[in-house]
Amino acid sequence: MNIQSRIALEEIEYSKPSRLGSWQFFAPLPELTLALAFSAIALILSWRFDLPFSFPASDALEFTGMSYAVPLSLIAVLGLFLVLAKQTMRLVYYGAAGLAYGVILITHFNVKMWMSLINPVIWDDFYWQTDQLVRPLVDAAFAVHNGVDTALPAGEHLYLFAFLAMFAGSIIVHSAQSFIVFRKVIFTAMLVHVLGALSYLVMPAAGPFLYEQGVNALESARQQHMYSGYQALVAGGRPWIASQGSQFMFAAVAAMPSLHVASSAVFVFYAWNNARWLGVLYLPLFVFIIFEAVATRWHYWIDVVAGLALTALAIAIAAAVFRPIEANDAARQNPA
What we know:
Elements: H1 3-15, H2 22-26, H3 29-49, H4 69-85, H5 88-118, H6 124-133, H7 135-151, H8 158-177, H9 179-199, H10 217-248, H11 259-274, H12 276-295, H13 301-333
């Protein structure tokens, strides 16, 4: 049975109102609830600290070398496949979950931008000292980058695009293999952005690029752009956010924890446990991302550890949230 036929049978089965838990299988209640809860928290922070919300400008991603065409193209391809396959319930889920994810991302970047105004105490000096305690590991990260950059002609671009490849691969593979697993991947990735944004406010930091330049020239150039915006934000405060926040939105700096590592760990975990071949493909990319996060001097090693701990927490929460849905699915497949 091919993938399209399996998806069609799955949708038919869950479309029957008599089937146990059919509404839970497709209803994105956890995803929408998470987006609403995070939005409410952000609104409280906005009110408490008198901080304006921003929405991304059309060219807000230009400094990364990427346009909105990349994520929007992936969404369009998935949507077109579902339209052609006439998978109405999945299409409705993708639309609702995509909306929830979009709300979470916009809220996340607003909170990230507010970081220094909500908590102006910066912990970079402390984190820098922790990096010096493990300096051989920092030097090892430099060595890994140099090795990859020598072996690959576009090694400096791999930090961003390895993550994007894992994101796209997880969406495509898990949505085709197991819809419940796919939902857990999406929910956990959302939760990492929620928990990560709130974590930025606890012991905030800009990053080790303040003390030394990394070995990735492309990322160092981005750091200069982002840090100049950070300095302008600190100097200009709320009026600067109101006037420049839309342009600067995706360029806010925040080192602790590393969400690049945390989000990548989400994809590795679910791939390794549900599509082992995909997990095997992800492992070298994931190891590279961990070392490159330090080699670029975006992150201290303690940020990496905190990011992995954040992923473990998000996975545990997602398991608890989806346990009733999975129990109903098991009951459907194995009726008494």
